[in-house]
Amino acid sequence: MMTIKKTITLVMMFLFSIALFGCQDKRTSNDSLTVIFYTAAGTTAVTPTTIPSITDFPKGNLIDRPEDPTAAGLQFEGWYKDKLTTTPWVFETDVVNSSTVLYAKWSYLDLNITYVFDEAGGNFIDDPITVFTIEDAFILPKADRLGSLFIGWILKPVDEYQVGDPIIKSTQNFNTDVTLYALFENKEYTVRFRSLLDGVSNPTIYTVEFASDILFPVLEDTATKRFVGWFSLDGTLTNDWGFQYVNGEVFLGKADSFNEETQEWNFIPQGITVYAKWEDK
Q: Which domains are assigned to the chain?
């Protein structure tokens, strides 16, 4: 009896072994492969789009070219067999004989900066950087303008600026072309008044913003004198009163000299003293 049971057990083990090896042979012959598309760009500045892997791929076959991945500020150059992207994968001839990783090759795009000054103008103090890549962190140029303090570069036209909007200092974190607008703040200057007439007090010191409208005090006429206006020079002795500051016109600072050729005054943005001119009634 024991002999029969032993014989049956040995037969079953033999049959199980045959079945097991048969399954293993079948699995080996039908092995499926995986193709992974590695799109990382080697920079933290951007994250490229991903391409889905191919699974259950039959050995010895060509693979279809997938859609190109994209990344802001980068140009996709093709798929390669190695991490160093020295050997390209040729989709027309290369076949998959084992699970494979294909590596995306990237190059940097040249990105452009456009600088905009508003109608009041401005000038660069430093040579402006106009081309950069996503790996660059160039410091943006400083600018100046007569009678103004340069605040920095912003991402919207000046008339849309709101306190708290970011001031851009460098190209860091930009991955597309960018337009930057120069933001200035007009300086304020002190104006002192000299009445030049006994019995008429000097008006209080006045503060005026550069390029704003002039709004100087108007002195009352006296019994014998009529107030003419405020001038840049004391012409009491010389009768040379220089430039007249007229209310409603734009304040540009000190009237420094008169250009005979252009028939215009040259101004220096600074505080001034103005002198009252009177005429007899």
A: 31-108 (2.60.40.4270), 111-186 (2.60.40), 188-280 (2.60.40.4270)
